Amino acid sequence: MHLFLAGPPGIGKSTIAPVLARHFGAAVIELDREIERRARKTCKAVIEDDGMERFRDLESSVLTRLQPTPAWIVVDTGGGAPIREANRAQMRQLGLIVGLRGSLDRVTSGIAATMAKRPNQDVAPRDRARSALRERREAYSDADVTFDVDGATVTEVARAIAAWLVSARGVRIDVLGPERSSRVLIRAGILEHVGPHLADLGWRGRVALIDDARTGSRYESAVVRSLAAVGLEPVTLRVPAGEGAKRLSVAARLWDSLAREGIGRDGGIVALGGGSVGDVAGFVAATYLRGIRVAQIPTTLLGMADAAIGGKTAIDIVAGKNLVGAFHSPDAVFADLSSRAASKACAPGTSARSSPRSRSPRRSRPRSSAKTRARPGSASS
């Protein structure tokens, strides 16, 4: 999944890219550096020796050679990379275009700080900035989202982009496990799309939704509607809240309920709640019928960040906590950032403002990446 940072020269793409990449454990590609590697000379020398058109051709060639990947990659594009429409089309084939926007003064100061690497030294920084903003306005406006960077630090801008990706577009991360890979889907409102994702994973028939009374009263109806909408048959099973759920007697009651309700290997268990609900539901899934599918819907921040990831399951016995359990990887983990417990813990902390961009009528429909793997947007249906 490629995130292309686009915007005028001097706007801060090269400083924002590595900071943004750290949020997602992503690699960074500098387009200019790749051009220099292919040309075996600096970008400045390419432009001065071979002309701007040759430089643009090399730029397009580097973009064309990028391949789709489930890994996260942040691409620091050059200031002129979006000029060619074919370049923008290639970027969208590979991911999202994230625009950076700033004032004439901001762009001027950025260019002035990097004048040594630029061709045509006789052109003043402010004139360069004014020309780029005027002549490339349409290209820069054709982005999936644009962030105003004036008055914001590099950290704030990177954090704002990451927050937008997670909350507005959604993020999918595939986690490799010993048995199977797990989809981790992070997005506000994902509860309403649980059913389509499980159906896509091959879930059929009857599904046990395990929750406690308090969590069920808040979120159960949305999950049940989503499951039923794709033809799954949800059955709700209640457990005590907190550590009281992690008892052998509770697990035994759940085993009996699964058998009575006819839950089989074509369906599975959906755990809705905090870490304790996820623990007992996962343990029951690992042991019933020698293992059936499980999906985790953690509703607490700790559950989203730790308990639901990796397939750790356990119940308590008299001798101590979590002494009986199994590793049983979930098919999917759905982290809905609008759930009450999570939203209280995740307060925004940035001053950078984002503006999703509308484009020409032929591309004015909402852009969705749901059909692709491991990319923002794939957490939506």
Written account of the structure:
- The model is unreliable at 345-351 and 358-381 (pLDDT under 50).
- This protein is an alpha/beta fold and 381 residues long.
- The protein is built from 15 helices and 15 strands.
- It folds into two domains: 2-168 and 349-363, Rossmann fold; 189-336, Rossmann fold, CATH 3.40.50.
- Helices cover 42% and strands 21% of the residues.
Q: Which parts are unreliable, with pLDDT below 50 for 5 consecutive residues or more? A: 345-351, 358-381
What is the chain-wise order of helices and strands?
EHEHHHEHEHHHEHEEHEHEHEHEHEEEHE
CATH topology of the largest domain: Rossmann fold
Given the structure, what is the number of helices? 15
Number of domains as seen in the coordinates: 2
Give the CATH class of the largest domain.
Alpha Beta
Percent in strands: 15-25%
Oligomer: single chain
CATH superfamily of the largest domain: P-loop containing nucleotide triphosphate hydrolases
Distance between the termini: 18 Å
Rg, alpha carbons: 25 Å
Mean pLDDT reading: 87
| SS-derived structural category | alpha/beta
Gross morphology: elongated
**Helical proportion, percent range:** 40-55%
CATH architecture group name of the largest domain: 3-Layer(aba) Sandwich
In this structure, how is the largest beta sheet organized? 7 strands, mixed
